[in-house]
């Protein structure tokens, strides 16, 4: 769903808290909002965080590569942050944050293929150029209108002074 979500831990919170907020973030995924935003994203690689609170070494992290209509492939990476380089196909990753064998949080990431990223980048550039052209036209219109109004006011004042 579109909106804001709070990422909560249901176990492992500081003190005697039953639940604690890890962070608040924009939600762009499906209704259950299980999609995360990478820490950094370039044309070549993506750096993705698992859900955790400090100290991060108190949790176990299980990264999976999700394959449509197949069993998820568990990856050997057990750190809170994983960096992957783009391939020729889009891939979905999921990270489960575990404490004492229980899953306490989960987040998914869609990593697009290199060709898809280049296509998106060129679309953004084209959209940015057309948006810039529109903005420039509006600025020129406002400037011209301002000059015309200023000159008109000056002539009106001169006319009033001469006929006074």
From TrEMBL:
InterPro entries: SPACA1. GO terms for biological process: acrosome assembly. The chain crosses the membrane at residues 138-162. It comes from the Eukaryota. GO terms for cellular component: acrosomal membrane. The keyword Cytoplasm does not apply. Keywords: Membrane, Transmembrane, Transmembrane helix. This is SACA1 protein.
